[in-house]
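agent: user wants the full assembly modeled, not chains individually. Plan: 1) parse entity lines 2) check alphabet per entity 3) run joint structure prediction 4) return tokens. Steps 1-2 passed, two entities, 561 residues total. Proceeding.
--- entities ---
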Amino acid sequence: MTVVDQARASTYDLARVRADFPILAREIHGHRLVYLDNAASTQKPRAVAEAIAGCYEGWYANVERGVHTLSQLATAHRERARETVARFLNAPSAAEVVFTRGTTESINLVAEAWGRRHVGPGDEVLITGLEHHSNLVPWQRLCEERGALLRVAPIDDAGEVRLDEFERLLSPRTRIAAFAHVSNALGTVNPVREMAAMAHRAGALALVDGAQAAPHMPVDVRELGCDFYAFSGHKVYGPSGIGVLWGGSELLEAIPPWQSGGGMVQTVRFERTTYAPPPHRFEAGTPFIEGAAGLAAALDYLTAVGLPAVGAWEAELLALAVERLAEVPGLRMIGTARRKAAVLSFVMDGIHPHDLGTILDHEGIAIRAGHHCAQPVMERFGVPATARASFGLYNTCEEVEALAAALHKARELFG
Amino acid sequence: MSDLRDLYQEVILDHNRRPRNFGPLPEANHRAEGNNPLCGDRVTVYVDVEGDRIRGVSFEGAGCAISTASASLMTEALKGRSVEEARNLFHGFHELVTKGEEGEDLGKLAVFTGVREYPMRVKCATLAWHTLMAALDAKDQPVTTE
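--- prediction returned ---
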């Protein structure tokens, strides 16, 4: 750590956080790993690995099925994990927490199970111009299938949603508005509380894609006033392959089953089947048992470090990165919203993002280069792709300096 | 791991900065579009074939240094060659960037030997060549590297 890091870490124990992530000690091409691809996926603290190992070594069995001790233990662990998620979101009840494979599956669940019933010909679905493909394509498919209209609230040159347009595009035909809490490609933090209120005034539901927000800021679904909130385990320092859909109880009660099979039923007869209440109604099949334990451990970890402190630290990293990157000749930042999470997209004159990705990798620096599953965002800014550095709770000022130095090196190489 | 300069050789950087035979070829009688959906690289290859000779070839599009330089150097390497020679050249080039084996006499194309160290970049290096093959085979569908 640099002196600056140490000074700033006096209120945030960065060294201790870093020590919790064994992977950060490894080398890439002879350099200490500088992991700046956190918006794609985050590294895991030891506590998560231990929770998963603890499951396999101490209490693994199938859930909900058996009367034997291990099955009861496994069921209890899973339901405790659900409670941990509910606390993390300040949700009124753990029964409102549906485990999914991730944000994508959470959104698909709503689009299919709720959408097919409530979105009909001539109805409208409103999204924004900064959505990840996973909060766009499911709605597009729903609209195509149901003869509904997909509306898109545009973003401005800074990468902020045009709220006036968002409000204007809400109509009595709008059934649901679906929008990101934080943009994965631009880092923009949307005023989701205001947007949810606008949607409600028009009589529409509000779904928030929280994949990029949950790792950076405290999330309170009651305060946000949304109807659905989705996020992924692997972006909050937990396992990949597990995620969450939160929905209000009354709303979930009224949604028919989605996937069907074991675990989501009450009684099954050839004539008729009755279904379990939420959340189990939406969890067909043997779930990712160890994943739920890992996710709960990740959320406990994040809560213990403290999300307000994490957010404050990442804001410092972002400010330093913006300053340093502005000094790189020919570098243009994409996404300059007033409120941003620690995500920095940029392009450089004469150097394609993929070449930047390769050059930085040589220095041990992992960034993302590409369209970030947000092709309409790339189109909006007239670029085929961007390079994206995204920060997490373990990144240091020294790593920001390493990024800047490597970009200067790339500039030299490409002339 | 090799030095970065092994991948980004001066010839590659030069062809990236100043791509040769860039732009549409009015007299082209074969044409195909290629794209790499993963990274958004896209290229159009124009070929003027008379009999079995390639009289002219050009390209346009946007991509990384490896794909741009590869397309540029490809157009230089192809002029005056027979279609059969072009196919052999592609085969040789493919072996070079995937296995590092230089069976054919590849001339300047040998500068792409560093690509074999970067499996993710093989698609960048071969996009223009796949597109060329599609143009010669007169396939109407855009080719992709996926």
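agent: reporting back. Chain A has 15 helices and 17 strands. The first helix of chain A runs from residue 3 to 8.
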